[in-house]
């Protein structure tokens, strides 16, 4: 059989194998880390804002984990520059599955949305809305 | 195609008893029970999580609901009496299956292994444990016992200790000797590891427990379904297992306990069915095992549990074990053909019927998703042994686990599906 896959389409595999904006920014406005305890996925997002303090200028990520979590982070680093913090805040799960362009099975949604969650929590901490050390998604029982 | 020898059990006949094995998968999962858009044959290799249910067991449950559904121990009417007889006999049947000569008085029906463990932890542990006492477990313990004793220890001030697992996935019995000492009140060990597949020397551990005056609790969730078990030969004081992993329904499990010990223990749940007499001031308890079965019990499930035991006995537990071992060895051999696969636990000829592994550079969750797309149902995660995975240095692993209806061809399908993942991630 060929090596087709519903979830692991070319775009996902490409971002997983060749992550964009992978590494750290030199002077991020804020940085935040999160993990999926049950899968061991970890993501750190560095975000640099423009002088208006609202528009996202550059994003980088580093981390480790499954292809879905890492590809999602990579795509997000391309997607976010140019958007505002409030637009980031408004991003929901549908936006992420749309960005990924594939149907993510319910068990894997956590992996797909981790990077977004980390970016959103980082922004909230930056705005002084919440105080947390690390983002932890709900731990599934497995 | 490889040359296939025969099996210790009649796999074709067994498969015919499990309609679910004929279904296809892959369609919309938001409409359970509707399979119109499924197109991929199912290869079910997640039996350590739960086994399937043969028609004979489903029929026994249907017969109960169609024929004599009623509450037990309450009504004098005919249906209630029939239901009571069936439910009580189910205890005897399950007792016989595990070699408990005390019959129903030594077998309490619970929801599952986890509840059996909690029953003893609360009914015995809270009363009997205190500062200076220790509970000895193993590093390969399932969360069902690990978390339970850990938390009871926190409440009581007792200490928990873990017998080391060596590099081959076996218990370090020298370490066990060091850990089990005069402070030890309970030795709670898993019989067959649900992650490593290790078959632990539970009789020897029970002896060690008894030498220091401790009780031995054996977690038989993975052993009772897969091999002949004799709780008296092991000399376990407590022994727990779940119906749903051995062809039975969900919602029922058992706690075996030696009669004298159960007799001494106070109830864990209070309410109806478990009392002999109640006044506004005080209550007295029913005989064993009912003292530990408060409220309306899982009657249909109990009937199904007994039918499951009948089903397995018809096949013969020696044959079940031989089939499990054959598949475990075959899977181990096939997976060790590949340098990029790491298998956890002892060698193929010395393990229960499951293999947990990782494929280099493919995360277990990605692997299981790709296998799922090809109809292969396996489990990815920490299999409720998170501390053991931490020790192995991995967040998750992929586990294939086998049962009486599985075949070598299904293991070949697993290996082919792994190859697809390998190519995709290359
Ligand atoms: C070794 C072991 N112990 C305990 C359990 C818990 O069983 P249950 O979930 O039926 O309570 C399982 C199964 O998940 C197991 O494999």
From TrEMBL, chain A:
One of its GO terms (biological process) is iron-sulfur cluster assembly. One of its GO terms (molecular function) is iron ion binding. Pfam families: NifU_N (PF01592). It comes from the Archaea. Signal peptide: none annotated. Residues 7-125 form the NIF system FeS cluster assembly NifU N-terminal domain. PANTHER family: IRON-SULFUR CLUSTER ASSEMBLY ENZYME NIFU HOMOLOG. This is SUF system NifU family Fe-S cluster assembly protein. It comes from Haloferax marisrubri. The lineage of its organism: Archaea, Methanobacteriati, Methanobacteriota, Stenosarchaea group, Halobacteria.
